[in-house]
Design brief:
Elements lengths: L1 E4 L4 H12 L4 E5 L5 H6 L3 E4 L5 H8 L4 E4 L12 H17 L3 E5 L13 H11 L5 E6 L1 E2 L7 H7 L1 E4 L10 E2 L1 H12 L6 E7 L6 H12 L4 E4 L5 H7 L6 H12 L12 E2 L4 H9 L1
Parallel strand pairs: 1-2, 1-4, 2-3, 4-5, 5-6, 6-10, 7-9, 8-11, 10-12
């Protein structure tokens, strides 16, 4: 049995579907019981558990050969990441109680960076799970191409791609969530000892100018990439509803300054199969 958390999201859903396609038994771990019917219809066993509930998670992981841990994203965390620490504590307790054969945890590019930033929530998860006496794989994907979903409306209506990454022609590692989910499913079926890190990016690195070109083709209208001045970020993010944009700004600085990157000391970075044009076309549709 493969227990998959975050199954209602893009990565968790892709992992579960890949395992089902391979004929593997899947236990869909959901926070919302209203979403259970879809996964039951696909043939999944259902478990309901909040990621902050250690007892419920332990029951959801009970008897599983492998568990996929997909921590919920907190884009506007309190200082010190208390939200992430609560989830981490619950996950650690649940894994210690249920003792699955192996664990794959979704982490991130740059999890090794010592500088505090939004992605440090995954650094904390890695540190905690590394102490478990279980085989654990940390899957570190690049920037998700699917995040472009937030940019479609502006590109369609104004012909603009607002970029926080620069320079506009710099190639950044990015990846489709379908590739991340597929990789997670494959890793869950492997056997290994101890802790390992697997890094993954898409088939080609991508610039903001290339994204604008792909949006132009999919939307059938000109789209131009424009840098959002850094001095405007804090006010802009607060206007969008963030209480404290510090961690998000630090993350963007990390990508632009290059200290959020692949570690590349754990073997070659894996390559996905889904390219930029495919993701953009899907998002536009």
């Amino acid at each position: 049995m493969y227990a998959i958390t975050g199954v209602s999201g893009k990565v968790g859903g892709a992992a579960a579907k890949a395992l089902l396609a391979a004929g593997k038994p899947v236990r869909a771990v959901l926070r919302d019981a209203a979403k259970a019917a879809e996964w039951a219809d696909r043939g999944c066993e259902i478990a309901i558990a909040e990621m902050e509930d250690a007892s419920a998670l332990a029951r959801a992981f009970e008897g599983a050969a492998a568990v996929f841990v997909l921590p919920p994203s907190c884009f506007d965390p309190e200082p010190g990441f208390p939200e992430a620490r609560t989830v981490i504590s619950a996950v650690v307790q649940a894994l210690e109680a249920s003792r699955p054969d192996r664990v794959v945890c979704l982490s991130t590019i740059g999890a090794q960076a010592p500088q505090s930033n939004l992605l440090s929530q995954r650094t904390l998860m890695e540190q905690a799970l590394s102490a478990l006496q279980l085989p654990v794989t940390f899957l570190r994907p690049a920037w998700f191409l699917d995040n472009l979903a937030w940019d479609i409306a502006q590109a369609r209506e104004q012909g603009v791609l607002s970029s926080f990454l620069h320079p506009l022609d710099r190639l950044f590692p990015m990846i489709a969530t379908d590739d991340v989910g597929q990789a997670a499913a494959e890793l869950l079926q492997q056997e290994w000892k101890g802790m390992r890190v697997v890094e993954i990016e898409g088939p080609e690195r991508v610039s903001q100018e290339q994204i604008a070109t792909a949006l132009s083709a999919a939307l059938k209208r000109p789209v131009q990439a424009q840098i959002v001045p850094r001095e405007s970020w804090a006010a802009l993010f607060r206007a969008q509803g963030m209480r404290d944009p510090t961690a998000r700004i630090q993350m963007l600085d990390g990508f632009n300054e290059g200290w959020i990157s692949f570690e590349e000391t754990h073997g070659p970075v894996l390559k996905g199969r889904v390219g930029l044009a495919d993701v953009v076309s899907k998002l536009v549709r």
